[in-house]
Structure formats: structure tokens, C-alpha cells
Amino acid sequence: MSEDRRRQTGLAGETAACQYLENGGYTVIERNWRCRSGEIDIIATIDDTLVFVEVRTRRAGGRFGTAAESVDRRKQLQVALVAQVYLRMRHLTYPPMRFDVIAVTMNRDDSIGEIKHVKAAF
Fold first, then answer.
1. Which residues are within 8 A (CB) of 17 and not within 5 positions of it... i.e. 6 or more apart?
2. What does the longest C-alpha to C-alpha distance in the chain come to?
3. The pLDDT of residue 69 is above 70
4. SS3 sequence of the chain
5. Whether this model's pTM surpasses 0.85
6. Cβ–Cβ contacts within 10 Å for residue 25, how many?
7. Which of 3, 50, 46 has the alpha carbon at shortest distance from 21?
8. CATH of the domain spanning 3-118
9. Across the chain, what does the average pLDDT equal?
10. Are the beta carbons of 106 and 9 closer than 8 angstroms?
11. What is residue 60's predicted lDDT score, i.e. its pLDDT?
12. 2 touches 93 (CB < 8 A)
């Protein structure tokens, strides 16, 4: 798959994940927040909880396992490190927070097949 197609797939998955969260009562406050340590796909709030969301998008019938399975320990540590930078830069000390994964499966016709939300995934 070309880099451009992969980027489009990822963007479509992130957009679907934002809509899913907003429909579920979340407020998306950041999208693709970056610092030198990396990037967090979505930062949202629900009630008084800050939620850092890693979005993984895969095509149906892909060869590399499910989207959720692709969030390995290394990626979890990177997201946690970037979250620490975010908290420091926003002067937030110990807010209620969690790390979620949203796995998006896209059909071959580029429609959204499934969205799976794993709360407190790591």
C-alpha cells in the first residue's frame, strides 16, 4: 500500500473515531497532538476524565492481525511519555485520566466496517 493511501486510511479512521467519541458524549479537545517525543491521535474528555486515545485503522482481511493488537508495549510507553509532556505543557497535575485504544476496521470500499473502543487499554 502506498504511503499516501496509508495516510488516507489513517485519517479516515481517526475521523471516524472522533465522531464515535463525540456521539458517545466525549469532547475532543486535541487531534494529532505532537511534541518531540511523538504524537497522540486524540485527546478527549468525558465527565472529569482526560482520555488519551491511540487510533489504529486496518483494512478488513488484512494480513497483519487486528488493529487493536498492533498497539504493542513500545507504543504504549511512547503514548504515556507524550501524555506526560502534554500534562506538563498544560500545567495539569494529576487529573483523572486513562489511555484508550480505538480500533477501526475499514471495508474494501473504504466504508467503516467496525469501531471497537477499548477503554483503559493500558
1. 41, 42, 53, 55, 102, 104, 115
2. 44
3. no
4. CCHHHHHHHHHHHHHHHHHHHHHCCCEEEEEEEEECCEEEEEEEEECCEEEEEEEEEEECCCCCCCCHHHCCHHHHHHHHHHHHHHHHHCCCCCCCEEEEEEEEEECCCCCEEEEEEECCCC
5. yes
6. 10
7. 46
8. 3.40.1350.10
9. 91
10. yes
11. 77
12. no
User: Which residues sit opposite 57 in a β-bridge?
Assistant: 104
The pLDDT tens digits of the residues spanning 77-103 come to: 999 999 999 999 999 998 999 999 999
CB 59 within 8 A of CB 9: yes
Q: Are strands 97-106 and 49-59 parallel, antiparallel or unpaired?
A: parallel
From residue 99, give the alpha-carbon distance in Å to each of 9, 12, 49, 96: 22, 21, 10, 11
Q: What is the pLDDT of residue 67?
A: 60
